Amino acid sequence: MPASSTVLIVDGANVVGSRPDGWWKDRAGAAQRLHERLMTADLPQDLVVLVLEGAAKPGVRAGRDGHVLTVHAKGSGDDTIVAEAKSAAERGDRVTVVTADRILMGRVEHYGASVMTPSWLLGEID
């Protein structure tokens, strides 16, 4: 069965935390800047899912803006990313997860997701 769409799931904390630019002083602002860059980036995926947790959540409201869906983790960000990857895979979508977390990589690869690094994503959206 062919994939119905392509989904890019972004580990917001991992991507923001990959650059020492002072993000820890304003996690919500850093999340908002990442969201804005994802909104304007020319990415090939049909849907970009930005997963936010903790102090980053107030920076971007949960919900869909165009091709970007922001999801607020109710608990663990990693568990939310795995749930999003599993759900997309079960729909038949091709899933890519952006993270540098090796344990998370293994968890999403279990559902057939491919993995890209934060530096790859930042190169695509800068």
Protein topology:
Elements: E1 6-11, H1 12-16, H2 27-40, E2 47-52, E3 63-65, E4 68-72, H3 77-90, E5 94-98, H4 102-109, E6 114-116, H5 118-125
Parallel strand pairs: 1-2, 1-5, 2-4, 5-6
Antiparallel strand pairs: 3-4
Radius of gyration: 13 Å
- SSE-based structural type: alpha/beta
CATH level-3 fold name: Rossmann fold
Strand order of the largest sheet: 3-4-2-1-5-6
* Proportion in helices: 25-40%
| Poorly predicted tracts of residues | none
N/C terminus separation: 35 Å
Number of helices: 5
- Strand and helix order: EHHEEEHEHEH
CATH homologous superfamily annotation: 5'-nuclease
Report what the structure shows.
It is a single chain. Helix content is 39%, strand content 22%. With 126 residues, it is of the alpha/beta class. The chain has a single domain, classed as Rossmann fold (3-Layer(aba) Sandwich), CATH 3.40.50.1010.
Provide a concise account of the structure shown.
39% of the residues lie in helices and 22% in strands. It has 126 residues and is an alpha/beta fold.
Identify the notable features of this structure and list them briefly:
globular, alpha/beta, 126 residues, single chain
